[in-house]
UniProtKB/TrEMBL annotation:
GO terms for molecular function: channel activity. The chain crosses the membrane at residues 34-56, 76-94, 101-123, 143-162. It is a multi-pass membrane protein. It is found in: Membrane. Residues 196-218 are annotated as: Disordered. This is Major intrinsic protein. One of its GO terms (cellular component) is membrane. Keywords: Membrane, Transmembrane, Transmembrane helix, Transport. Belongs to the MIP/aquaporin (TC 1.A.8) family. Gene3D superfamilies: Glycerol uptake facilitator protein. It comes from Candidatus Neomicrothrix parvicella RN1.
Amino acid sequence: MGIILFMGKVSGSHLNPVVSIAFALRSDFPWWRVPGYIIVQLLGATLACLFLQHVVDVSATFGSNYPAAGYSNMSAFWMEFILTLGLVSVILGTASGAQNIGIVGAFGVGGYIALAGLWGSPISGTSMNPARTFGPDLVGADFSSYWVYVAGPLAGAAVAANRQGGRLRRLRQKLDSQVAQPRSYRSDCRSLVQESATGAISATPPPRSAARSTVSRC
């Protein structure tokens, strides 16, 4: 949450390759910037693991993600898919363009990550982020299950971006149709003016209530 509040207006606080890709899929983020973001995200995760290993003297494998005992790689894949689908949906729903900014986004994203960790950690470790898994796997030299934490989050992010993009397209189409549709009261006023010009309106003044309703419509 703190990083979103601190860095949201600077870089967007993506922190996750699938988030950058999801913003690009929704046309909020240029594709040519995605590779640079992903490289920096992978580098940041690796440096964090090296710091923990050499400065704090913590084994890099402590931060690794892998399927829990009794669960297969496919079970972990589906868990990562579902968790990332929810995460990216929250991010796209609270973001401003391609930026995670504001208190709503910070608490929404942070709260979801905390709850997802409680639910998914016993099965897959709740990565939802290929960069977060890449760092410990690189430093620990073990990529045996890394594909799970790339394929699952990528698939979940793609589905979330497609759903959000479809909603935005339907909203734009609805707004465009409302703008293009002529308003009925304008047509009524035009018809009254035409009838008046051709003498179609009777010389007898209408009742006061009818006159008021005509004026209020125009």
